[in-house]
């Protein structure tokens, strides 16, 4: 093993042993152990992480950099829960609170389809009164209004209380949602799985176990899904490794995750914000470790409204191969928490040019990563 690793020819006399081992293991296509993941988070320098993550992304995805044409619908920002990192939730009666009617949702979906989008991403607050039946109706409405759109909707956090209140089992409920039009499940609500941290930042939300169960069931029914990790708040590196480990295990079992999306905590307009934000360099280091650790999830999404357009080339050098989509001006989850670009919108030609200038090949994809 030692001999094979030396063949890679890295000369790293000053790097700590665990870092050298982690980098060389990843570049040899071996799976990182939790201890190696932790060592990379703690001690690996940006050039080493960039090298290994780029090598891994080239092996998995070549120079292809994916994007799609999509838009978001956020049905409401009323929410049963009061997570300390959230800037999106508003009380009913607040001038910035909203709850869309089915007609408004249908008209947004229709417009997205007419504009040439291929996907609608529907997510928002966990409305205090909306029922499972309402969500089924909402999906049917969108399906009817925009039959050609892939519907990626309702994070596990939104689904768990609806299914529980309807007294349904998860498999039956998900099958009903699928029949109503649901194509895949977005990655939101995972936050950080580690119980101690979850208790502090989102104690009312579904548990890590429940989040994982929703995705497991969805995968069993043939739906694909995404996974996120909210990082850069009070979690430690060990919590991030634990999060990645739990996702890697589920993916070994089902293979149902399309992509992984690290989301940097943004500090504006929420209670947790007093702690400030991590640097762009830490965002990049995190991308790289995620790329190396999640050897079984094909795509790493650099969600560009979070990243800021000017940082896209950097993210591509740290393992990212997917940028999400055009999005339009349709999401407020990030704009309310502080974003890099004042107006997080991008045209297809703008995204393509950024990717080309960075030396990669832009590729429009559908929601299942097939080239369009
Ligand atoms: O779960 C909320 C995050 C998520 C803040 O599946 C925050 O393709 C940072 O999951 N700072 C929702 N992050 C968005 C989401 C998502 C985004 C893009 C693509 C996909 C996908 C999914 O946004 C929440 C939470 O982790 N979030 N508030 C904040 N202040």
Automatic annotation (TrEMBL):
<dbReference type="GO" id="GO:0044689">
    <property type="term" value="F:7,8-didemethyl-8-hydroxy-5-deazariboflavin synthase activity"/>
</dbReference>
<feature type="binding site">
    <location>
        <position position="155"/>
    </location>
    <ligand>
        <name>(3R)-3-methyl-D-ornithine</name>
    </ligand>
</feature>
<keyword id="KW-0004">4Fe-4S</keyword>
<dbReference type="GO" id="GO:0016765">
    <property type="term" value="F:transferase activity, transferring alkyl or aryl (other than methyl) groups"/>
</dbReference>
<dbReference type="InterPro" id="IPR058240">
    <property type="entry name" value="rSAM_sf"/>
</dbReference>
<dbReference type="Pfam" id="PF04055">
    <property type="entry name" value="Radical_SAM"/>
</dbReference>
<feature type="binding site">
    <location>
        <position position="191"/>
    </location>
    <ligand>
        <name>S-adenosyl-L-methionine</name>
    </ligand>
</feature>
<keyword id="KW-0408">Iron</keyword>
<dbReference type="InterPro" id="IPR034405">
    <property type="entry name" value="F420"/>
</dbReference>
<dbReference type="InterPro" id="IPR045567">
    <property type="entry name" value="CofH/MnqC-like_C"/>
</dbReference>
<dbReference type="InterPro" id="IPR013785">
    <property type="entry name" value="Aldolase_TIM"/>
</dbReference>
<dbReference type="GO" id="GO:0051539">
    <property type="term" value="F:4 iron, 4 sulfur cluster binding"/>
</dbReference>
<feature type="binding site">
    <location>
        <position position="79"/>
    </location>
    <ligand>
        <name>[4Fe-4S] cluster</name>
    </ligand>
</feature>
<feature type="binding site">
    <location>
        <position position="86"/>
    </location>
    <ligand>
        <name>[4Fe-4S] cluster</name>
    </ligand>
</feature>
<dbReference type="InterPro" id="IPR020050">
    <property type="entry name" value="FO_synthase_su2"/>
</dbReference>
<protein>
    <submittedName>
        <fullName>Radical SAM protein</fullName>
    </submittedName>
</protein>
<feature type="binding site">
    <location>
        <position position="85"/>
    </location>
    <ligand>
        <name>S-adenosyl-L-methionine</name>
    </ligand>
</feature>
<dbReference type="GO" id="GO:0046872">
    <property type="term" value="F:metal ion binding"/>
</dbReference>
<dbReference type="Pfam" id="PF19288">
    <property type="entry name" value="CofH_C"/>
</dbReference>
<keyword id="KW-0479">Metal-binding</keyword>
<feature type="binding site">
    <location>
        <position position="83"/>
    </location>
    <ligand>
        <name>[4Fe-4S] cluster</name>
    </ligand>
</feature>
<keyword id="KW-0411">Iron-sulfur</keyword>
<dbReference type="InterPro" id="IPR007197">
    <property type="entry name" value="rSAM"/>
</dbReference>
<feature type="domain" description="Radical SAM core">
    <location>
        <begin position="65"/>
        <end position="298"/>
    </location>
</feature>
<keyword id="KW-0949">S-adenosyl-L-methionine</keyword>
